[in-house]
Design a protein that fits this description.
The protein contains 15 helices and 10 strands. It has about 350 residues and is α/β, with parallel strands linked by helices. It has a 4-stranded parallel sheet.
């Protein structure tokens, strides 16, 4: 088996897929099993999960506070300490049951505890099903800077059960939709067209939508697990989106944005940059902008905030030699890597975004 294929975790779908976890536990015989949850998944998801697990092993549950603001090293220290106090050893298994914060942080905790114990991801939000739980990226934020500390380590397997989505608010569902739209924009125009016409997600379509998105991501990751080349395509909308998200996360006067809401803004900004630098078609820029604003609404980003947002770009993980590197689009499903964007154009992209406030409302 070559290195690339080996590095993509197997993903199983639906309520039958718990048998894969039970089989894994039976085959690998871990010494103990730990489930990482946050307060929300402890309340809404843990019961459904445990009902499907048949092991005789004792299962310990470790709970963290929910939300991106808790995705930091202090939370990891708490989980490492809990594992240690509860007698975890190198043969223990960690199961991360939750959204992107739980799978990112839990994967990082597992892959560093005693130099690495195996972990399984069971994503419970749309965002983590189509993005965070798949592909091996783990990690935490450093202050308000997103995902600055982490490692790329694959989960043993991922179980996607869309029943968990019944516990989500429509806002959380929309947040996950941003990553699905991104997959269409970078890889599959017909998928983009189909997804952008959904005024509301029909739950019966959801399983095939999630699977299609995971396949797009897995296909890219299998070719480039460590993000040396084409895996960077998955960062479309994230260079500016993460800067916007970080700014709103740490500015107490602002309402926090969910990850998908910030990425939606980033996709409009970076589609504008694509039109300026790579001649991305104007009509498609207008279509993307309208679809995203219709879905996510408009966030007021004032001129005074821009300098702070743009200064956060300097810490983006994709930078090299002091240059901010963008993934932009020549067309839908035709991404271009490592595009250097002059700072004045970045300011103009925010002018363009702000102009949508009057034209769409």
């Amino acid at each position: 088996m070559n290195e690339a294929n080996y590095l993509v975790n197997p993903v199983f779908y639906g309520s039958e897929s718990y048998s894969n976890i039970n089989q894994y536990i039976e085959d690998k015989k871990p010494s103990s099993v730990f489930i990482l949850v946050d307060t929300n998944t402890q309340q809404n998801c843990l019961g459904l999960f445990l009902k499907n697990i048949t092991t005789e092993l004792q299962i310990e549950v470790i709970e963290i506070e929910p939300g991106e603001e808790n995705k930091h090293i202090e939370t990891c220290t708490g989980v490492w300490s809990a594992l240690s106090e509860l007698g975890a050893d190198r043969k223990s298994l960690m199961i991360n049951l939750g959204g992107g914060v739980v799978t990112d942080l839990g994967g990082f905790v597992a892959s560093t505890f005693k130099r690495g114990i195996p972990f399984i991801n069971v994503p419970t939000t749309l965002l983590s099903m189509v993005d965070a739980s798949v592909g091996g990226k783990t990690g935490v934020d450093l202050g308000n800077l997103k995902n600055q500390v982490g490692v790329i380590v694959q989960a043993e397997l991922v179980v996607v059960d869309s029943k968990y989505l019944q516990t989500l608010s429509s806002r959380e569902m929309r947040s996950g939709l941003a990553e699905i739209l991104k997959h269409g924009l970078i890889a599959d125009e017909s998928y983009w067209n189909r997804m952008s016409n959904l005024s509301s997600l029909d739950l019966s379509d959801l399983d095939t939508i999630i699977e299609h998105s995971v396949n797009i991501k897995s296909e890219i990751v299998s070719q480039d697990p460590y993000e040396r080349s084409i895996r960077k395509n998955l960062n479309f909308g994230h260079t500016l989106g993460h800067a916007v998200e970080s700014f709103y996360l740490t500015n107490s006067e602002k309402d926090k944005l969910l990850h998908g809401e910030a990425i939606a803004i980033g996709m409009i900004l970076e589609s504008y940059l694509s039109s300026e630098i790579l001649n991305f078609p104007q009509k498609k820029l207008r279509d993307i902008s309208k679809i995203i604003i219709d879905l996510f609404g408009f966030t007021d980003i004032s001129t005074e905030d821009l300098n702070q947002i743009i200064s956060l770009l300097k810490h983006d993980k994709k930078n090299s030699n002091g240059q901010v590197n963008f993934v932009l689009l020549k067309d839908i499903a035709v991404p271009e890597l490592d595009v250097i964007v002059p700072e004045e154009l970045i300011f103009k992209s925010f002018d363009f975004y702000n102009s949508l406030n009057t034209t769409n409302h």
